[in-house]
Description:
By secondary structure, this protein is α+β, with helices and mostly antiparallel strands. It is built from 11 helices and 13 strands. It has helices spanning 26-30, 34-41, 53-61, 101-117, 165-175, 184-191, 238-256, 302-313, 332-350, 356-370, 382-385, and strands at residues 10-14, 20-25, 46-51, 68-73, 77-82, 87-92, 125-126, 130-134, 154-158, 200-202, 224-226, 264-273, 278-288. The strands form 2 sheets. Strands 1, 2, 3, 7, 10, 11, 12 and 13 form an 8-stranded mixed sheet that branches.
Amino acid sequence: MNGIDLSSIQTVGCDKDGNKTYSYDAADLARLNPITALRIGLHIDCIVTTPSGYAVRLQKGKYVIPTFKRIGSGDQGVVYERLGNLCAYKKERHTNLGLPLRQEFAAHKRVWDAFAKYRHLGVKVHVPRLYALVDKERMPSNWFRNDKLPPTDVMIMERIVPLPKVLCKALIETFHPYAHSEPHVTAEILSEPANKHCLARVLLGVYPKPDFKVPEREFSLQSFPLSPHYPGLWDIYQTTFARMMGGAYAIMHWAAHVTGDRAKFVLGTSVSGDGGVVQHRAVNLYLFDFGDCPTIDMTRDKEHVFYDFKERMVQDYNQPYIPHPKMGDGGYEDWKASYLYHAKEIIRSEGLAFDPEEFLKEYEECLERRRVLPYCVPPQWAIRLGGDNYYSRSPPVRESTQNASLRDSNEGETINGRS
């Protein structure tokens, strides 16, 4: 890769399904150019061996009173980690603006069951496992002791472990416009508690035209936007992720019968190791957040079923995750081929009477009518890699060392939550 011999720093192995994996020590990745480190590390076959402060907290938390730490929030709920285990706890807000948490639990379970049923099709997208839905009347008294509000329902699910620190550091050094001229900026960003929960959103589609008058905001690693449109960084994986996400949409639609509305695709990690401070962090593509995914009645006629699916797919908040047929830098044909292959297999197995090719034709026509304006990458991330080759916009004026750069235009979207 880029003239670098990786054989001296990688260990080749296989996962439990027989797929080839490539393991790297975090110290070796840290010595590489940050773009090269990201090209290696942001791939689903990568395992990073790293000393982990998270592992230390995990061990200490096993022997103390349950301690919950907030790691994300949205309109529907607040997400916590509980020190001592690998679970995420989504606590419903009293002002929930989405589906009730019980309905999200049901939609999430439908998706998880569908992916388990069709695992043999080889869609390597992970849906976090569900463990329980705790009724507010039965919530243990020592949970959320600092919460002054009355109890609400809590959904317990598998925790998506953040990206390793070495990759977070590489993200900052690659995309922050002042990381090299002011080295202390990287350390300051990494020290922020919220930035320890870094998941990277996989964005293959297009953005609506942004408002350039948005004031400068803090650089954040939470829900970090990654796109194949960044030249020289991630484009080599565009086909891989387009096929994975196309297959995932087919499973959601025709096996789980949910719309996928506002569901998110992110890169995170799962953990294995000997229980010590060293962890083996396997990078995976995750699909989660089904709080706005209604279940579709598949007994209705095709016009209603097609309408429910396509009208949600074309919404601005879903389009960043789906390659566009005509806009952006490609990927749609790979997405489409994977969608059709998996949809046909599932429809045949489920005994449904729908034509996925006809559905995608209607979806493409619906996109044409909407005439979405192309804007493939949030402008603040283009300063370092894209520059004026991608946007007719000058780099921002440096205001202070504490306020480093703009954040993603979808501000407020945080891990395991929705805003």
